[in-house]
Design brief:
The protein is α/β, with parallel strands linked by helices and about 375 residues long. The protein is about 45% helix and about 15% strand. A six-stranded parallel beta sheet has the order 2-1-3-4-7-8, with helices on both faces.
């Protein structure tokens, strides 16, 4: 089977880019895989890319050239926004090649993509024919014009049937599937299925001993719940280590200087992340938006590390309360602190049992061994149709 993957790179390398490369590496073991990249640009070039995203003839020509060159059996789109544009779906359809598309966010439902605005959940667009309120609130890049144009691109392609030309949409969680099925996108509900992300099992870290602290790893930004995190840990004796970088880095440094129980350990490479996940008591994940499928959570399970998270979106389905971690009420710092204390009062055996269940979650849902089975079933289904 020949598979052509298509991905539009973001200006800054992120989790979606990592997922694409991991999946190509995995699929290449059993299939012939090619990867066609588009690149989002900055400045005036990026502005014209964004304007042309409604009908990017150049992107369509590049894809057509690649299709003629390799003659793929299946085309797997990861990200069309914005350098490629939705026209690539129609190009695949013109050559009668089945199309599978991974959905990492909620851009088809709202220009915000995160269903978040000014650090609060924003879901008003999900069931609207056109997201006028999102445009009014300037949810995309704080721009009325850019929000309108992105909303119009999605709306236009909804009305000419582009989104229905995708044979299978791969959502990361059951939560995302339900959200899309019950939205105003107008796509056949049977086209949505669950295909989770994955990570490889960490090697050479078995001798690391657990320490008595919690760990946060991620972007230091509002949507990740950084201020909620600090609020829950300050004025307590519960130890916290914070790793990452982002717009709230100075705020985190200031808080770590004032609070003896909070330590900022900077940005970490892949090995450093896994090392810290093996050391900590539990990972804390106070995100205030729905998330897609955070790689940090999967890596935590792979390291046998339980997770204490907000009961929201992906986290509500990935983490089973009382088994592989705990939930707390989203945005509630007091409840967050109560759950931290609850975890600390568990016996050694209870913590070990929770760690074992965290690892079992990884093995049964997010290991690479399962992925080929997912892909084979999905690709064969669209080929039969």
């Amino acid at each position: 089977m020949k598979i052509l993957q298509i991905h539009t790179k973001y200006q800054n390398f992120g989790g979606e880019d990592t997922t694409v490369l991991q999946e190509k590496e995995l699929l290449s073991v059993s299939y012939e895989v090619e990867l066609l990249f588009f690149q989002n640009k900055k400045g005036i070039i990026g502005f014209f890319q964004f304007l042309c995203s409604i009908w990017n003839i150049s992107a369509s020509k590049n894809l057509a050239k690649k299709i003629k060159e390799i003659n793929p059996d299946v085309i797997h789109i990861h990200n069309w926004h914005f350098a490629a544009g939705p026209i690539i779906i129609r190009t695949c359809n013109r050559y009668k090649i089945p199309v599978v598309m991974t959905i990492q966010n909620f851009r088809l439902l709202c220009p915000s993509a995160l269903l978040l605005h000014k650090n609060a959940l924003f879901t008003e667009s999900v069931n609207k024919n056109f997201p006028w309120l999102a445009v009014k609130k300037k949810v995309y890049r704080n721009s009325f014009l850019q929000t309108f144009w992105l909303a119009f691109v999605v709306w236009f392609h909804k009305n000419i049937g582009t989104w229905n030309k995708v044979d299978k949409y791969l959502c990361l969680t059951a939560f995302a599937v339900d959200l899309y099925k019950n939205s105003s996108l107008g796509v056949d509900a049977n086209k949505f299925t669950i295909k989770p992300n994955f990570t490889y099992l960490p090697q050479g870290l078995d001798d690391i001993k657990r320490e008595n602290h919690f760990l946060f790893i991620g972007r230091l930004s509002e949507e990740k719940g950084i201020k909620l995190l600090i609020n829950a840990f300050e004025n307590s004796s519960i130890k916290l280590k914070i790793a990452g970088t982002g717009p709230l880095e100075d705020f985190v440094k200031e808080c770590s200087n004032k609070c003896k129980n909070i330590e900022y350990i900077g940005n970490l490479d892949k090995l450093g992340v896994l090392n810290q996940l093996k050391k900590c008591n539990a990972l804390v994940f106070p995100s205030i938006w729905y998330e897609g499928m955070p790689l940090t959570i999967i890596e935590s399970f792979a390291c046998s590390t339980p997770i204490i998270s907000s009961n929201l979106g992906a986290m509500s389905s990935m983490i089973v309360h009382g088994e592989n971690g705990f939930h707390f009420e989203s945005g509630n710092a007091n409840h967050f602190k109560e759950v931290l204390v609850q975890f600390n009062t568990l016996s050694k055996n209870e913590k070990n049992e929770m760690r074992q269940k965290a690892f079992e979650t990884y093995k049964s849902h997010y290991s690479p061994e399962l992925q080929l089975g997912y892909f084979e079933a999905i690709y064969n289904e669209v080929l039969r149709k």
